[in-house]
Amino acid sequence: MAEEQDIASTRIRLTQRRYVKLGTLLSILVAIAGGMYTLVDREFKMRNELETLQKNYDSSQEQLQNVRRELSLKTKALTRLDRTVPIPDQPERDSIIIDPLDYNEVELQWIDPVQPEGAEYEIVLHSPSRSSIPKPKDVTPPAKNREKVHREGHGVFFWKIGDVTNKRWSDYASFSVYPSTLERVRATERLVVGRTRNYDQYDNGVVRLEDELVDLIAKYLERKFDILDVKVDRRKIDWRNLLEAVKSGDVDIALANITKSKRRERDYFPLKFSVGYLPNHQLLVHRKGERYPEFPDGLRGKVVGAHVGSINLKAAGAISKKYGFVVNDKAPSYAHSLRALEKGDIDFAMIDVVAYAERKTRLTRNIECYGPSGPEFDEILREFYMRELERPDEEIAIAVHDRHPDTAKITLLKLINEMLQSREGQSEIERLKKLHFSRPEDPCEG
C-alpha cells in the first residue's frame, strides 16, 4: 500500500513538472509571439511612415519643380518684356544635351531687341569643372546673334550674354550636359518616354501593353541602380515627329507599336532598337460587310491607305504596282487612316496584325481581313522586308536614344534588352499578351 502511494506521489510530481515545463514553454511562446507582433507592428508603422515621407517628398519635389518652372517662365516673360537687354534663346532654359565628349563645342544663341550696330558681345559660361570661362569680346553682326563656345565636362552650365559696349547684360540661363542617356536617367531619376496618339480613340491593346511594359522597365532600373523611384514622364508626340524626338534626345525611349528597322536606325542615328517584344505582320483590312473578289483581284483599281512615315505605307507602296492599286498617304496617324476607311474615303487599309489581334474594340468590330495574312503575307513582302528591315519578318521593338561614350560597359539599351530577355521579362510579356490580346498571332485564321 505504501509502495502504491509512493508511485502515485511520484506520478503527481512528474505531472506537475510537465505542467510547469509546459506552462514555461507556453509563456516563452507567448512572449515570442508578443515580440513578433510588436516587431511586425513596428515594421508596419515604419512602412506607413516611410510611404508617408515618400509621398511628402514626391509632393515637395513636384511643388519645387512647379515653382522652378513658373519662376523660369516668369523670368523669361519679364526678360522678354524688357526690350533693352539681350535674351538667351538657345539652348532653351533647363534643356538637356546628351554628349559623350568631355570637351566639345556648344552653340549659344540669343535675341537682342535693340540690335545696336557694331555691338561688342561677351559670353560668360560657367562650367561644372571651372568657375568661369569668359568668351573674349567679339564684334558680332546683329543678324547673327550666335556663337560657338567650348564647354568642358558634364553637368549643369550657366551662361549669360552681354553687350559690353552699352553695358547691357542678360540674366543667366542654364542647360545640362550628360555623357549618356543612362547617366541622365540615373542623375534625374526620370525616364522620358515618347508615346503617340495613333490609337487613343480605339482603346488599343498595344497601348495598354506598352504602358505596362514602360513601368516594368522603370522598376528594373530602380533595382539596378538602387533608386527608390524612377519617375516615368510620358509625352504624347505626333507620330510624324516621334522618331525624330528619339534622335534628338528629347525622349529617352519611344514605344508606339514601332517596327524594328535597320533603315530607321541609319536615318535617325543615334536611335537604336531593342530586341523585339512582339512579333508582327502586315494585314489588309476593309469595312465589315463589304464584298470583294478574292485576293488579289479585289485590289485592282482600289485605294489602299496607310499613315505617313509607317512601315504599313512603305509595304503598301512596295506591292501597289504588282497588284494594281493606288496608295493613299494622306493620313497623319493610324487613327486618321482607320477613320478614312470607316468613312469610305479608302477601300482598304494596311495595318499591323497586332492592332487586329487585340480584344474586341471599336477597331476590330468594324473591319475584316482581306487576302493572305501572317507568314503567307510575309512571303509576299519578303523582298521589301530584306531591303527595309534587313530581315525576313517584322517585330515590334523599343526605340532608344543610344548615345554614350565608346568605353561605356552599361548603356540604357543594354539594360532594356537585359530586362526584355530575362525570364521575368518574358513571363510578364506573355502575361500582358494574354491579358490584352484575345486573338492568335494570325487573327485571320479561324
Please tell me about this protein's structure.
By secondary structure, the chain is an alpha+beta fold. It has 2 domains: 87-178, Immunoglobulin-like, CATH 2.60.40; 180-446, D-Maltodextrin-Binding Protein, domain 2, CATH 3.40.190. It contains 13 helices and 22 strands. It has helices at residues 2-81, 181-188, 205-225, 239-248, 262-267, 311-323, 334-343, 353-356, 362-365, 375-380, 382-388, 412-421, 423-436, and strands at residues 87-90, 95-98, 103-111, 120-126, 133-134, 138-139, 146-152, 155-163, 168-169, 173-178, 190-195, 231-236, 253-254, 271-273, 278-280, 282-287, 303-305, 326-328, 348-352, 367-370, 394-396, 399-401. Strands 2, 4, 5, 6, 8, 9 and 10 form a 7-stranded mixed β-sheet that branches. A hairpin with a 4-residue loop joins strand 8 and strand 9 (168-169). The longest helix is centred in the N-terminal third of the chain and has 80 residues, at 2-81. It is flat, with a radius of gyration of 32 Å. The relative contact order is 0.10. The model has no long low-confidence stretch (mean pLDDT 82).
